[in-house]
Amino acid sequence: MKKFFRVLNIVLALGGVYALFCLGLIFSASNHRPENVEGLETIVVLGSRIASDGKPEPTTQERLDASLKLARHHPQARVIVSGYQSAGSPTTEAEGMADYLQAHGLDSSRIIQEKKARNTVENFAFSKKYVRGKVLIVTSDFHLYRSLYLASKLGYENYQGYAAASRTSSLQVAGHYARETLALGYYLIKFTLFSAV
Question: What is the pLDDT of residue 196?
Answer without folding.
Answer: 60
